[in-house]
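Submission sheet (multi-component)
Chains listed below:
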Amino acid sequence: MTLPQELDASRSLLDHLVMDLEGKPLGRVDDIELEAVDGKPPAITALLLGPLALGPRLGGRLGTWWVAVGRRLRQDASAEPPRVPFVAVTELRPGEVRIGLLRSEHEPRLMTWTRDKVIKPIPGSGGAA
Amino acid sequence: MSRLLSITLGVLTAIGGFLDIGELVTGSLTGARFGLSLAWVVVLGVVAIMLYAEMSARIAAVTGRAVFDVVRERLGPRAGLANLTASFLVNVITLAAEIGGVALALQLASDVSYLLWVPLVAVLVWVVLWRLPYGAMEKVYGLLGLALLVFVVALVKLHPDWGGLWHQASHPRVPTGEGHPTWWYYAIALFGAAITPYEVFFFSSGAVEEGWSRKELIDARANVVVGFPLGGALTIALMAIAAVVLQPRGIQVDHLSQAGLPVAVAVGKVGVAVMLVGFFAATFGAAMEVALSSGYTIAQYFGWSWGKLMRPVQAPRFYTVCLLSLVVATGLILTTIDPVKLTEYVVVLSAVAFPLTYFPILIVANDRAYLGDAANPRWMNALATVMLVVILAASLAAIPLMIATKAGL
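Outcome: structure written.
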């Protein structure tokens, strides 16, 4: 893994596409988690994904509402957005962050829900109903 | 040889694909009211869409990013969401107008009310998106759209005063009896019809999905540089036949059948039959593109899997959005809202959302970290910046003019 020691997170990280090992999109970098260990400057510890991370960045009433929708989508009642530890990042490309995980192990709820409840029941969707 | 053939095929489909319900309605309507005095707007619109379609295809081919990837990245989540909301609304209304257009073409052919055709058309659009090999269907509809060349045949057969038409087009003035605000309002409508954002959403997403490299970019440029101007020429031919047949008789276009009247006069029944095939193909092809575009924009903003080449189970959120927008659009047109009026409104409304889509494209097309040596040359930036100013002016003037003229009355 060759990652820069310093980077402009707002230019080369935030809102970029998160791609898994197989090149499947996991979402976008909706926010980042920073941690300051005493004395040292804060370092990026994780990428945050999904509505619970995006809501606060939208701000205002819309942001609050966004977070509320995000919470309803979570199966566990946790108010924490899904996080990808920054050590899992393998490569930064223009507009894209590659990570060494598989999407199939972290499928977003909206994806599984639309697949199982909406798409699969329609004949010819490519998956046995 | 087969390469030349594929390029020719691409260009032919681009001509057919350029025209949709927006051009058919606004072209004919403005021709009947203002002669060729607004033909310059079509030329301006073609130049604008050529520039921005080429840029978005180049970004897609070099970086693998589609337009809404770029929008989210460059505008950030808030302004990106504002653009997404506006684009999605415009997409759904455009989809309703296209479905209405297909249904009206079928009504003209069958004498069965368009409202009865609407559900059938919606199901047909869905089946094509869901199951059929999309690439082949796209080519079929693009080629069938060439039937609209009948506008050119009609124009020639009408033996118009070519010098007079050229004079109207090259010395634009507002015809007597029409107000300046109305003239400008329809100028925006024509401009809006030529550069509706779904065209760049669809074009760039297709490029990403089919994994275009720089080699395919040459084909894309041929489509843009040859296909779009020829599509624009067809729009002007439609304006011209309306100017020759409808304007002197004071006939206003408020139904698709009136748009076809000059063809009936000049070429007769066979001409009308050919034209109806063209109407059907152009609007049906556009309906598929718009339905997909509503899925593309949302999926790209959120970073979901998307694509017409993917099976529905592989991109369930994308297909759910496409399905939902198709259902909503069908509902909208079934409210018996006039499809022609709806088209007039939506081309003007889409002008309002333009700058938020086209500005990020121009920014990224200049980003050497992204595009390296494929970034914009200077002349292109100069031209694209001028166009962006025009786009911004159209966007700002659209709503005030719509109110001032009571939507072109």
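Remark: The interface with chain B takes residues 14-18, 24-28, 30, 54, 57-59, 62, 94-95, 110-111, 114-115, 118-120, 122, 124-127 of chain A (CB under 8 Å).
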